[in-house]
Design goal:
By secondary structure, the chain is of the alpha/beta class. The chain has a single domain, classed as 3-Layer(aba) Sandwich (Rossmann fold), CATH 3.40.50.300. A hairpin with a 5-residue loop joins β8 and β9. α4 crosses α5 and α5 packs across α7.
Length: about 270
């Protein structure tokens, strides 16, 4: 399965994505996280994955070198060294990592954080990245493409996702994913309030009538303690979920292969 994981900045995207990584990690032979913003160290501290900071030395590694690293560390968070590795260089490294992943014969979950930097719409999509999104699942590879900028990620990536987890967007603009959803797009606009009659019953909020659109939940201190999302897939499954009820052991530090199973929602 390829999963598009998208929401505006501040919607709790990284936290929710990490809960999916944690709940699926043991279901695969390997978990590889391309961590652009150093958000997923909680997986390392919880013993879910190993950790490697990708700096100048790692930037020189060949596809063969990466294959050795990935074989030796099946579950691993590859964290970009923020001060040493810029966006363009990270894209080059990610392309070599994708080539290595494509050559490994195993069931694996690959997570691409800030995916619009790895597969930007304005650049030619590197073949290894495209293969990861289009044919990777045939070799037992599932992917998660995490982004807040749907207009900036290559359309091939999102249109090849068989499942979507979509949070809130100001104005309800969700870019290429619009053609894949079968409900009012303004459901993703926190300021909107589409009529309940226009929304499938399974996507209506529980326990309240207004607003019908997705919302963030805040505590008395103004801190976000949960957010609402819509999950949908090509099999016709649709549901509204709330991260305020998500179960996860690891802490989040935020700035046609196997299916992906959602985390446990209370």
């Amino acid at each position: 399965m390829n999963l598009g994981f998208v929401a505006q900045s501040g919607w709790g995207k990284g936290y929710h994505a990490q809960s999916w990584m944690e709940s699926n990690a043991r279901e695969y032979e390997a978990l590889v996280v391309l961590d652009y913003c150093a958000e997923y160290r909680g997986l390392v501290k919880a013993g879910v994955a190993d950790h490697l900071i990708v700096g100048p030395v790692e930037a020189q590694m060949s596809v063969s070198d990466w294959m050795k690293v990935l074989r030796a560390n099946p579950q691993i968070v590859l964290e970009r060294h923020k001060s040493e590795i810029g966006t363009e260089r990270w894209r080059e490294i990610a392309t070599r990592i994708a080539s290595a992943l494509r050559r490994l014969d195993r069931d694996q979950l690959v997570v691409v954080d800030e995916a619009h930097f790895v597969a930007p719409q304005r650049e030619k999509l590197p073949k290894p990245i495209k293969e990861l999104a289009t044919t990777g699942r045939g070799a037992g590879t599932s992917t998660m493409w995490v982004t807040q900028r749907t207009a900036e990620i290559d359309k091939t990536i999102l249109t090849q996702c068989q499942a979507r987890m979509v949070g809130g967007f100001d104005g309800g603009e969700i870019g290429p994913l619009s053609s894949s959803i079968e409900y009012p797009a303004e459901l993703h606009n926190p300021a909107a309030d589409p009529a309940p009659s226009r929304i499938p019953d399974e996507l209506l909020p529980s326990g309240r009538k207004r607003p019908t659109s997705l919302q963030k939940h805040k505590n008395d201190a103004g801190q976000t303690v949960g957010s609402e999302w819509i999950y949908s897939d090509d099999d016709g499954n649709r549901r509204r979920v709330d991260t305020g009820t998500v179960s996860m052991q690891s802490n989040h530090y935020g700035s046609e292969g196997n299916d992906l199973e959602p985390p446990e929602y209370a």
